[in-house]
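Build the 3D complex.
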Amino acid sequence: MHLRCYHSTVSRLGKFITFEGLDGTGKSTQLRKLAAALRAAGCKVVETREPGGTATGEKIRRILLDSRTEGLSPLAEMALMFASRAQHIAEVIQPALDRGHIVLCDRFTDSTEAYQGYGRHLGSANVLKLHEILCGGLQPDLTILLDFDPAMSLSRARRRNQSGLQRAKNSSKKNAASAHADENRFEQQNRSFFARVHQGYRAIATRESQRVIPIDASGTPAQTHRKIMEALEKRLKLVCR
Ligand code: TYD
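Done.
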């Protein structure tokens, strides 16, 4: 497949594309595949993630995702998500967009609305208010929402994290253990939490149908990638041949 990249000739310098969805929907795989396709088409691409994406953000990520972090209040959790994001925008996202690059980000404020707003019952309005204050209202040009059965995606995420932990335990090297850090805190939430998160994503997709494209992620990674390429072709003037 050939793909021609026009982003440098259109509107606001770079393009900001985010990936969203429940844990285990294959976001990271799809982000990598899209990055490779865009690079092959000659685009400058920055791959990044939240929480994290900067040295400070990665420290915050460890606090947020480590299942040994006990008793974190929902408001503190939301504040840390935004602290990581504010740093990420200042240090990575905005400078890359200013240089005209395509930024592919694994999760952004929609995650906070779905997980903290809906999942933790903090409400959309509070999340959107903080987004305005702390992120200057920065909106992605496009959001790929990977949609997959909540129960199945969660069991996929749990299996992945368990095997990562097992590899770390079996390894005698200390730094290999830290490379497979315990990132299970959210996956330990119950079914109804993830049902609310799923509902949150649906509501965001309905409210912001211009920006958010739901993509059925139940097929193979190659099938899902093809759907994403088609969606991009339509929305961002990227031409696949
Ligand atoms: P991620 O590494 O994308 O997990 P996965 O690969 O399993 O999808 O995200 C880490 C977790 O952080 C995930 O469970 C969702 C949660 N999260 C929030 O609750 N709020 C947020 O704002 C963000 C960015 C992530």
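The radius of gyration is 18 Å.
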